[in-house]
Amino acid sequence: MNPQRSGDTGRPGRAQVWTRVAENYAAWLLLMAGIASAGVFLTALAGGFEGWSLVAGIVTLLLFAGCWLSFRDSSRREAAEPNMVRYHPDSPDVVIDVDQDTGERQRHRD
């Protein structure tokens, strides 16, 4: 038997959120480095440096593959979390009341 802890609300903890943010930043850094290495690849190729263009091409492919794998892993993890509640209101200036019985949305009246 695993009783639920009193402070456990089903939301991800601070460490889980921090690791998810760090993974997303790493994926964006891989993407930017891949674009930069693609520029280096094209420059080396146009300059006639066959060896350097081969190295830059391999590095570019590895960086783009790492970026793709990181984004794919992140999207799979988000899809597997059943407790994620995402609510985007139509306008942040509008407060909406939701009827508990029917689920109908209505503007809030003071």
From TrEMBL:
Keywords: Membrane, Transmembrane, Transmembrane helix. The chain crosses the membrane at residues 25-46, 52-71. Residues 82-110 are annotated as: Disordered. This is UsfY protein. It comes from Rhodococcus erythropolis.
